Amino acid sequence: MSSYNGYIQRLSKKVKARLNDIEAIYNFDLGDEFEIAMCYLLSDFLPERFGVCRGFVVSENGKTAGDDLIIFDKMSFPVLRPMYGNDFSIKQEIPIEAVYSYIECKNSINDEDVFNKALSQVRKVKSLILERAAKINPDFEKNGPIYNHTTRDWPRNFPKRKNQPFCAIISRSSNGFFPDKVTVDSNNPDLMILGEDKVATQTVNIGPDGIKSALFYDEDYSASLAIEEVKGDAFGIGIITILYALGWIELLPIQWGGSLNRVYWDAIDNEI
User: Fold this and answer.
1) Residue numbers of the chain with a pLDDT score lower than 50
2) Count of alpha carbons within 13 Å of 66, Cβ hemisphere only?
3) What whole-number distance in Å separates Cα of residue 92 and Cα of residue 73?
């Protein structure tokens, strides 16, 4: 039994049971239903300060990206379209400054076309989110981590940005398809859940010792995405990984000053 009395394994079973319950209400044969199911599922598991919705991320200048699941800071950003009784069929627009995570949801990923489409969507969203102002990680080891009192030129445990977004792809089912190699790209997803049995994560190159899994993309040591067989525990591992990332990320406040000034000036112009 693994740590915390097999918590991850028990969580995987609970997720599977919860998805089966939701499937009895929403037919997963259609595209939106699995997204809605994942919204309900993550709302059950995430701490209260995290909001969950479907929709788009939007920058201050009006650029948008995405069309799936967003985890955002609901303490600093109230949604404009009310979700009565957690009506996740309603799509929202969330400022990039308020986004913790974007998740592309697929009912199944069984071929290259679907895989590449999901990958492309995540890259567009992550690229737009990274246009926000950076909150510098004060604990980032610029010259490398210290081991045995010596600075080592090794991968860092966490990125330079404290508000680095965490992006993922979640597929309810998969036939095991995964490319031989995914092109290294700073906007690649940080996590992929491919059915109940497979998980892909970022990896880093550690020299003669090969590669190891990483929570976030490492701009200096990234070795692309790598897939692992986890035998029924993919959803439990995935949700705990998301929680781990969300617990580390810290967002900057939304700078409403410029928007308020423009609204005031527009109002004054209309009166003249």
Assistant:
1) none
2) 33
3) 13
